[in-house]
Amino acid sequence: MLRAARGAPRRSESPAREGEKVSVRDAPRILTIGATEDWHARIREQLRSAFVETVTSGAEGRREARDWKPDVVIVEAVLPDMTGMAFCRGLREDPDLRHLRVLVLSTQHSELDRVLAFECGADDFLPAPFSPRELGARVGALLRRELGARQQAAPPRPEQHGLLAVDPELGRVEVAGRPVRLTVTELRVLVLLIEGRGKVLTRRTVVESLAGEAGVRSVRVVDAHVKSLRRKLGEARGYIQSVRGVGYRFSVPGR
């Protein structure tokens, strides 16, 4: 079964220095695309240590892949609106999505089905029935390939969100061109919110995502970090919105 760390190594609460690499994704992000909830439930059960997002159609899958930027996509061979092969072909034709690692799960076992999947751009093909261990091993292999590709790629450019520029790898944040000095935990909270932009992130989810951070054990501590983060972001403070009784959402006005 796939294993992933649930949290970063324990760190003291200190400002993230420029050039310091800060891990903001402690578990892989897996997008599953299948027609039924039972299918998704079986996949989630075997990938419990990953962040799993589920959709039921190829069109939804492409939108979610663009917005959520998963590490691996698992797609069923037959979807309500298209085949898994057509989905793979569409990804490879899209400059923004062609890099994604895709595993096709199919009830078909023939050599022709395997060849067709690879010709359409699948990275791997797994026929059912399959064991939980084999699914985890296949996903793990794709994750290692993705990590290797990222390490060889050119240094990422800062992400721009309105007035806010964020470079998670270098721990660098700017608002309207002005450097903002954040603590390691504040940076991790900010990136978590940005990665889920448009969606509400509960306080409890933040606590669980930051497991291992010094002092982060309660939702009240999360609230304190968000309050400090907003103060430091100045003109961009409004990008972090409170959802009463639930948590927080990152949203840039007009986007």
Fraction of helical residues:
25-40%
Strand arrangement within the widest β-sheet reads 2-1-3-4-5
Q: How many strand segments?
A: 12
Strand content: 15-25%
What is the rounded distance between the termini?
39 Å
Order of helices and strands: EHEHEHEHEHEEEEHEHHEE
Which structural class matches the secondary elements?
alpha/beta
The residue-averaged pLDDT reads 81
Q: How many distinct domains?
A: 2
- How many alpha or pi helices? 8
Largest sheet: number of strands, sense, barrel closure:
5 strands, parallel
Tertiary shape: elongated
Which ranges are low-confidence, i.e. pLDDT below 50, for 5 or more consecutive residues?
1-25, 212-216
CATH class of the largest domain, please? Alpha Beta
CATH architectural name of the largest domain: 3-Layer(aba) Sandwich
In the CATH hierarchy, what is the superfamily of the largest domain? Answer: Response regulator
CATH topology of the largest domain: Rossmann fold
| Radius of gyration using CA atoms only | 19 Å
What does this structure look like?
- This protein has 255 residues and is α/β, with parallel strands linked by helices.
- It has two domains: 29-152, 3-Layer(aba) Sandwich (Rossmann fold), CATH 3.40.50; 159-250, Arc Repressor Mutant, subunit A, CATH 1.10.10.10.
- It contains eight helices and twelve strands.
- The protein has a five-stranded parallel sheet with strand order 2-1-3-4-5, with helices on both faces. A four-stranded antiparallel sheet has the order 6-7-8-9, with no helix packed on it.
- A hairpin with a 2-residue loop joins strand 6 (159-161) and strand 7.
- Helix 6 (184-195) crosses helix 8 (219-233).
- The longest helix has 21 residues, at 132-152.
- It is elongated.
- The N and C termini lie far apart (39 Å).
- Mean pLDDT is 81; it is low at 1-25 and 212-216.
